[in-house]
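Issue 218. Parser rejects a valid record. Input:
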Amino acid sequence: MSTQRRSSPPPRSSELLRGGPAGGWLAGWRLALRMARREVRRDLGRSAFVWLMICLPVAAICTSQVILASQDIAPAEFLDLRLGNGSARLTWAGIRFEPSTEPNLQAVVPYTGDELSLAEPALPIPGWGESLAEQQAAVAAWTGQPAFVLTVAGAAVESSGELVELLGIDADAAAATGMARLTGGRFPETADEVLVTPAWTSRGLPATGTVTLRGGDAVAVSYRIVGTAQTRLDTVIGLVGMPDPQAPDRSFLLTGDLPVSWADAVRFAERGFATTSRAIAADPPAEMPEMGADPRASYGGLIGTGALLEVALVVGPAFAIGAARQRRALALAASNGASVRHLRRLALGQAVLLGSTAAVVGVAAGVGVGVVAWQFLSSDPIQVNGPLEVPPFVAIVLVLGTLTALVAALVPTRGLGRLDLVATLRGSARSRPPVKRARWWGLVLLTLGLAGTWVGAPLDALGTQLSFAVWFGALVVTVAGVLLTLPSLLDGVGRLAGSAAAVPRMALRDLGRQRGRATATVAAILGGTLLLGVVWTMVASIEADIARKDVPQMPLGQAELWSGGRSMDGLRQAVAAVDPTLRTAEVGESWGWSADPGSEEVEQFAALRPGCEVDDVLNNPDVPEECVSLGNDSRTVFVAGLDDLVWLFDLDEPQQTALRDGKVLVDTSSPNHPMRRGVNELIDGRLRLGHVTFDGEAHHPHTLEIPALAVTDELIDRGSSSGRFGAVMTTDTAARFQIAGRNEVLRVVDPAGPIGPDLAARLAAVVGDSQSTIRVERGYEGSTDPYVWMMTAFLALLAVIAAAMATILATAEQRPFLATFAAVGASPRLSRQVATTQAAVLALLGTLTGVGIGLLSGIPMALSATSSSRPFGPILVVPWQIALGLVIAIPAVAALVAAICVPAKPVLVRRTT
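Output the parser choked on:
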């Protein structure tokens, strides 16, 4: 008799795996990755596309971040360029001032333009002489540490007109090691010897022989080239010579061990020096402003955000198609007991495999390309750049790139818990009908999101992080609402096509059935166009706001040269050397009264209208609207010689006589520009000007009456600008009535017509240096930041690629259906027409929704950005050119790609799905 042994129960799966739950988790992912590797090999085309669409944008982001970070010169990097081996640098200003804080230059002169002439002379330094050697010794004795003099002067090469900077430094001294390095020849020994730098030779200028330069005084000076040098400063240097006592920029480098603090900088400012110091950078004063955010970094962030968004939206359809192809294998696994967690893990295996490898390779390739590209970009000797820098942000990009792929792959796996095993195994699985609740939820989210984008406008969306976060969150809600309503929209489009021709009817009805793929394709195109709609709505509105506030400073085509305290005769000679037919006039402006023509003290004046007193228009923060006039409406008096005024303003005989008799021509017309508020009025044929003198804390109002002749703003605009000047008088009249006028501007007029860019460049080449500027009036010229265009091109390219690649994938998925058409006798043209129609409709829907939401969401941002404009108020400009270009180009590209991808002779196969 035999006994039957009782069989033991089979071991549980967790007991077969060592390590407990952790071991089971690892084994599950190991299996998922093995299956993912097999699926990748089976479908290399789609897998390669997914891998590239993750790798390439990540590489582009990292490349841009490396280049932007390297281009940006941080304060610490600026100190190295500015100071070399020194601890501080004192720049001679010659005036006494209270230093103003600035992130880079540390303690700087707060005055500009005409304010410089009103500043007090600096306190004398013991031993300060006329020669640079005496001044260097005086600075060293006064500061108690070694000082080293260097000068910088601008000049123009006589033979070519090229503008160059001439560095004056004892290049042989140890203190110059960090700023100038001899690379060939010998050091200069006399004032007429120079070294040339790569910035000089890169312009095709000679590296040997002699060269003649003209400085700001138009005097020609010849130099002999004795060698070559490499410089490292905060400005581009063309020549290196001996220190020049006539150079406008004179500095003393302190090379001792004593730190120069902010208190020292205040003391130096009384002696006429602006200060740059490492000690101030290490211990800045409380009022030191922070370095403002570089807008290029913001554009880089927008580019990165848009690129990652496009990555998610572009690879989403690819993972959706992959999930559809895996549906039968997943159904088999589910029928053998796999849980939803196991199914989702199997579906995510490809995302982990492709996303992680693509992100790692993309970051490595992007950084490598950025490093190589920076070597070429920084090799330009006429640019000042910072050192190569790889920002830590690339590590964040690595993580975000991988997470983006995982999220994009996770979305198609949401329905695995509701997988119909029987239908899937039979090959008859169909898209689920759109959920009505999802449609209504989408409409609710769309409405709330668009309303939410307007919530930030009263909070000043550009001024607070909270309001921007509210706007961005509302934008995300808006996009979610659009995506929820898209399936119903596609289903409705298919129903509306019932009365259309055969081809569009079949194409649109198929889109209604393939709602998941179609929604992913639309979303892929929507992302980039949405960002472009927002950005360009803001850019166009801000540009229009700037344009409407622009007031011409002189007639179009004329130019002004600011003398900077130099000889007017020298400026005239320089202009005549360029073109002897050019006419010039010494012009100036006056806004105050002075008891002593030689004094630096000037009291501001303002015109008095009937019923207004001096205290109403001066020393009053709230001037009554009926008293706003010349002097307190931002307009001043135009002052020049009689002959110059006659030809500049084309004066008739009575007006010439009035000026000759000591009268002033006064614009009494109503304001013709919103930026102009005041109205000038004459009282008994006289212009009444009020000014105030001070005696200690007491002030004494005074009234000055000048004979006047009323003119119109049209006359003022002939020779100047009625938005800048409200009256015209001769220099003799200004002197007689003690009107403080400063004729420091040389007006240049070409009798042949407006001054063109070539002539302006030649004028700048002759007179241009650090103390002289030239301005040609050309009206408002828009200047959209090139980084905006770069971002636009990048996002538009991604949108086009999204449309093309999504179309390719969709067409590949449709091949069995297209083959069925061919099998029943349809021509290849029918297949192409169906694919082209679907691609064009999906791209059109994606572009219209993206641009539309972008415009609607960008409106509150644009209105908020321009709401502070006075007296205009907010302005809105719709960038219809950009929108129209996107709406036409992207669907056209999608349709073209679809037509190309559909084969002329489809392979006839038996449909299994």
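Fixed in the parser; the record now loads. Residues 828-866 form the longest helix (39 residues).
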